[in-house]
Amino acid sequence: MSAVSVEFKGVSKRFGNRSVLAAVSGTLQRGRVLVVAGPNGAGKSTLLNILAGLLRPSRGEVVYRDGDAPLARTHWFEHLGMAAPDMAVYEELSALENLRFFARLRGLHLEDPTLQELLDGLGLPPREHTRTVGTYSSGMRQRVKLAQAILHEPPVLLLDEPSSNLDEAGHGVVADLVARFRELAAVAVATNDPREMTWADARIDLAL
Amino acid sequence: MRASTLLSESLAVLGKELTAELRSRVALNAVGLFGLTTLIAVAYQIGPYRIQEQDRPHLLAALLWVILFFAATSGLSRVFVKEEDAHTAKTLRLAARPLAVFAGKFLFNLILLAALYAFIVPLYCALMGYAVQGVASLALLLACGAVALSATSTMVAAIISRASGSTTLFAILSVPLVLPLLVMLIQGTRAAAGSTTIAAVLPALQGVVSLGGATLVISVYLFPVVWHD
Question: Under 8 Å CB-to-CB from B167, ≥6 apart: which residues?
């Protein structure tokens, strides 16, 4: 896993007349978890979308660096994994089929036992691996979304409310995941859950 | 860096589309039922005998493409709208190259159109008593028409996918883009019906290939912008 860092400076975002983010700066780097906290509507998800390259900031800039070399925006996606409430996996496919699909898109040649091990590790029982996601509970879907995000062991991991819809055991699974990726990747977590805020090595508090 | 090729990514997107469609059958049902209903209505009201002999070449060719086009419109717009509705678009944006997404969706629409043509065209010929002299010419025209129509529909579907009222918008945006194509396809079909030689359909075929080719080339450049911004 390469050491990719993400630096963002003076990032602002407006939707029409409404300002959602105003001059937010920070850095994501391996070994540190950045927690983005704030009430609903403060712009946590917007910031993560900008860091993922899914939204363009109205002002400011985001720079991905692989070592010292800046990465072109078109290559950001190869280096990041993301899970968010407004992201879904395919309901018509099973968890295993979803992971096979995303692995193939990312050029990974992963055998089924490896994918099953990943799903097991996130607390999805083996009997559920081949059922279509459309029949899953919201907590089970969240586990598949997390599996999709970490499938390629990305050097940048963006998690927006990662424990949403998860039970207490699920929260523990996410805590373990963040602890593991802290050593491997630059991690950002957007949350307003006090337990998740304790994961922070650095913190950005957004206000309404 | 990616180890996968654009081809393998495109085939992965196509495979996902086919699997999801075979399980939900939403687009297949929409296209098939719309096509069949229109065909039966036309056959019942007009049939093989209510058109005067001198009008048959023009009207039968035009009616065939009206049925095919509007049946296709009911299903082809779904390829991107369903990704936005199901919140999978963002997941796909982060995992696949834009061109792979376009190619996979284009191929899926092409297969859907081929299935529609294979189902409707023979039935139309039988019910309307449409005797086509140049079957090979018509098959070639249908194949080129499907490529051009699929390219246009896939691109328009991507443009309208984030808009509300996207199905209406799809029809509004598609019609001016598809109209010249339809005119050439109707002319070509009329020529294929009356002649066994490919030369008879060549002018229409050249037009369809040019339009389809131009749409594909423009889409390759335009799609990444539409998909990410």
Answer: B77, B81
Q: Tokens at residue B96, please?
A: 């696949």
Q: How far is B145 from chain A (nearest CA, A)?
A: 30
What domains are defined for chain A? 4-205 (3.40.50.300)
- List the alpha helices (DSSP H) in B46-88: 56-76, 78-85
Q: What CA–CA distances, in Å, run from A166 to A101, A143, A163?
A: 24, 8, 5
Neighboring chain A residues of B13 at a CB cutoff of 8 Å:
105
The whole-number pLDDT of residue A58 equals 95
Residue among B203, B225, B130, B146 at smallest CA distance from B178 = B146
DSSP-derived secondary structure letter, A156 = E
CB B117 within 8 A of CB B146: yes
Q: Is B93 on the interface with A (CB under 8 A)?
A: yes
Rounded-to-integer distance, Cα A2 and Cα A156, Å: 10
For chain B, what is the total number of helices (H) and then of strands (E)?
Answer: 9, 0
Which member of A82, A92, A106 has the closest CB to residue B19? A92
> What are the tens digits of pLDDT across the range B165-184?
666 777 777 778 889 999 99
Residues whose CB is less than 8 angstroms from the CB of residue A55 and which lie 6 or more positions away in sequence, other chains included: A13, A46, A49
Tell me the HSE value of A87 on the side-chain side, using a 13 A CA sphere: 29
Angle between the N-to-C axes of helices A138-150 and A112-121, in degrees from 0 to 180, rounded to the nearest 10: 120
| Strand ranges across the sheet with A33-37 | A80-83, A156-160, A186-191, A33-37, A202-205
Q: Are B92 and B83 in contact (CB under 8 A)?
A: yes
CB crowding B151-187: b at 16 or more within 10 Å, else e: bbbbbbbbbbbeeeebeebbbebbeebbeebbebbbb
Mean predicted lDDT score pLDDT of chain B: 90
